[in-house]
Amino acid sequence: MTDMKHLSEMISSLPESINVIWSVNFDDTLPYDLIKFTAIMSGQEL
Known about the structure:
single chain; alpha+beta; 1 helix; 30% strand; elongated
């Protein structure tokens, strides 16, 4: 999870009015070093 540090810092730097939902999904069909990442963001300050 230390690889997620940059993502965490980016989300933390957003204005508080921005809502973020994100997920990391592991997919056995992808190479072992890849993941599926999904992010949904909403807010007027985007």
